[in-house]
Amino acid sequence: MSTRTQRTPAHPAGTAAAATLVLVVLVALALRPPFTAVAPLLERIQQDLAVSNTFGGVLTTLPVVCLGAFAFVAPKLRQRFGDEKVVLGCLVVLVVGNSLRALGSAWTLLAGTVVVGAGIAVANVALPGLIKRDFPHNVPVITAVYTMCLTLGGAIAASVVVPIGNALASAWQAPLGLLAIPVLLALVVSVFALRRSFGAPPLPSRPGQLWRNALAWQVTVFMGLQSAMAYVVFGWLPTMLQSRGMSPELAGLALGVQAAVQAVGSMTVPLLCRRFRDQRPIAVVLAVLIVLGFSGILAGPPVWLWPATVALGLAQGAAFGLALTLFGLRSPDSDTTTALSGMAQGGGYLIAAAGPLLIGLLHDLSGSWTVPLVLLLACSAVWLAVGLLVGRPVQVPSVRGDVTRQ
Fold first, then answer.
1. CA–CA separation, 194 vs 391, rounded Å?
2. pLDDT tens sequence across 209-218
3. What is the dotted CATH code of the domain comprising 14-204?
4. Closest Cα to residue 180, out of 157, 151, 155, 210?
5. Where exactly are the structural domains of the chain?
6. Which CATH number is 209-395 given?
7. CB–CB of 36/157 below 8 Å?
8. How many beta carbons lie within 10 A of that of residue 171, not counting itself?
């Protein structure tokens, strides 16, 4: 006779769920700043270390590669240590990585970025499974909170690192190193909130079977194309706007506005997913907004630049929220959610890493933004086609199997 031992919470359901929500909020706030804080400081980093633009490109691309590469190990870590211990361990890794980046050399900066990327990658994969486990009937709502905190944390960090550096007379070391402090506080508060809520590690499962499932691959491509277009915006939007006549100051402001409205989109769409079992209409609307956004920025009249930037921000924030929500909606249990999250984010971010590099190469070769725009519109069309598949109310098979016998 086959049986499977279920996880028994150490707390009543309400208290355990509250502790999990505290963990989700605090960790989400800590996951984006290590990445978004680098771009405003990049020129200072290059001048201080006397490094090339190639080094700058590596520094900005390396985090995305790490998000993909290290995501694949998260399900195995979860199997061994359990959800909460893995996520708290990621906070420890973030403290170490942020501190390492502040030591001041090019090599410690790169090494710290890899360490930070590893911690963020594993936490990115583990949190959707944790949400599915403790909030199985409210996945869209908790995912909305999660994505909002992700976006908010990144936006705050990007806006304060330069003033902090100026106030401390530090080009970039102190601003990057100080990112370890809120992570450390999040770790302390999370340990206190979870002090009696640690569950046993999940029983063995078979996450590898998802690699043979068509829907899992569709979710992976959906995540990857969404992320690729998002990182194109993070890396190239100010340059695009300046090529259309906008001043550098306004172009930087536009990037900040774009990031801010992403928070609105990332919070709204998961809530819509709670009301609609079929997410295909949502994918259609978002694809249209993304096309209008890129077209308005790169080919429309100057009066369209700001509306197109706002529309693109809303759509890309919503697309990110939709992708994360699908991990829980398209899986029947928390083990499968973590496995699907690991596959989709691992493969997806590796796809995304090529986006900014390819757009830059096409721009250099063609001497204009026309060819990059065609590629972005093609990506939007493929993303929509995949969205019509993943938006259906179906699920991948459970990775749970007959793991114990009596």
1. 35
2. 888 899 999 9
3. 1.20.1250.20
4. 157
5. 14-204, 209-395
6. 1.20.1250.20
7. yes
8. 17
Tens of pLDDT, residues 167-220: 888 888 898 888 888 889 888 888 877 765 555 555 555 656 888 899 999 999
14-204 and 209-395 share one fold: yes
In tens, the pLDDT along 35-73 reads 878 877 877 888 888 887 678 778 878 888 898 889 888
Length, in residues, of the chain:
406
Instruction: List, for residues 149-172, the tens digit of each pLDDT value.
Output: 888 888 788 778 888 888 888 888
Angstrom distance (rounded) from CA 288 to CA 384: 9
pLDDT of the residue at 50: 86
Single pTM value for the model: 0.80
Residue reference for tokens 């590596």: 58
Q: Are 219 and 326 in contact (CB under 8 A)?
A: yes
